[in-house]
Write a structure and sequence with these properties.
With 324 residues, this protein is α/β, with parallel strands linked by helices. It folds into two domains: 14-144, HprK N-terminal domain-like (Udp-n-acetylmuramoylalanyl-d-glutamate--2,6- Diaminopimelate Ligase, Chain: A, domain 1), CATH 3.40.1390.20; 148-311, Rossmann fold. Helices cover 32% and strands 28% of the residues. The two termini are 41 Å apart.
């Protein structure tokens, strides 16, 4: 499986309005000022608490980030006289700032709101604690700026393991997934799978909005998995833990028969365990993928059946009945 030519997309910025659209309910956000700047761009997935900037130190001011104002910043501004606060804010507003986000229903002084209105810098207010605001905003922004790609494959949740089934057209990816669904597992996406990296070590598969939970079965046509099998057999997102490539049986190919050699494929910088499984008449690919998923779960729990079996054989060959 060649992943070198997969197109990689990464957002260079998002607009503050997108933050409002997707986080308003979660953070109970309200816009207090700077409404005309609601489409200002945010270029970084990091956030900043501008305490030093309000204190007058602007040399390393991370102005391109969402600025979080909590109790510390608001109470500090309240202790400054009007002239000093005005001077400090003027200096800070000489930089391009995407938006301010206040926690705990805090309300800043009118001079701050007036300056934000004059310069079109949105001021958002949340009822959540500062820690909650920071953690949820970082998660949202990290996901928004994560690299993503699209792959021709089928993604299923098999015994809690996200399996990405790949292979050449017509090899039986959809039919194998259909049997897994009939056996009680869940479909994430078929044919067009959106992949997104979350942090450095997680790869998520997501359903495509246009063909959500639909499958093409040759000879039958398009089926709606959710309507046919029920809502319990689909999900919108799943972490990928295993890549299974189905290929036509090749007599000259060297297929792994022991499981001692582990292969990996890297997608969007994330290394995922990889299995290459030959397809031939009489082989039940759904059961094989079930076993592969359960075996993967054992390995995640620190148990490697192939290595344990190999160790036992070596002990027997060296004259011991059982490994010590």
């Amino acid at each position: 499986m060649d992943t070198q030519d997969l197109p990689v997309n990464r957002k260079t910025y998002i607009e503050v309005s997108r933050l409002m659209e997707f986080m308003s309910r979660d953070l109970e956000l309200e816009a207090m000022a700077g409404f005309q700047g609601i489409d200002r761009p945010v270029y970084s997935s990091d956030i900043n608490r501008p305490g030093l900037a309000i204190g007058g130190y602007l040399e390393y001011f991370a102005n391109d980030r969402i600025q979080i104002l909590g109790n510390t910043e608001i109470h500090y501004m309240e202790k400054l006289n009007t002239a000093t606060l005005s001077q400090r804010l003027d200096s800070m507003f000489s930089f391009e700032i995407p938006a301010f986000l206040l926690s705990r229903h805090l309300t800043p002084q009118n001079i701050f709101l007036d300056m934000c209105n004059q310069r079109g810098v949105p001021v958002l207010q949340s009822s959540r604690s500062t820690d909650e605001v920071i953690s949820r905003i970082i998660l949202f922004l990290t996901e928004e700026f994560s690299p993503e790609t699209v792959i021709h494959a089928t993604a299923v949740d098999c015994y809690g393991v996200g399996c990405l089934i790949v292979g050449s057209p017509g090899v039986g990816k959809s039919e194998t997934a259909l049997e897994l669904i009939e056996r009680g597992h869940r479909l994430v996406a078929d044919d067009v799978v959106a992949l997104k990296r979350h942090r450095e070590d997680h790869l998520f598969a997501e359903t495509n909005e246009m063909i959500e939970h639909h499958m093409e079965i040759r000879g039958v046509g398009i089926i709606d998995v959710k309507a046919v099998f029920g809502a319990g057999r689909v999900r919108n997102r799943k972490t990928i833990g295993l890549i299974v490539e189905l290929e036509e049986w090749n007599e000259g190919a060297n297929y792994d028969r022991t499981g001692l050699i582990e292969e990996y494929i890297e997608i969007l910088g994330v290394r995922i365990p990889y299995l290459r499984i030959p397809v031939r008449p009489g082989r039940n690919m759904a059961i094989i993928i079930e076993v592969a998923s359960l075996n993967h779960r054992l390995k995640e729990m620190g148990m490697n059946p192939a290595e344990q079996f190999n160790e036992r054989l070596l002990h027997i060959m060296h004259g011991n009945n059982r490994p010590t």
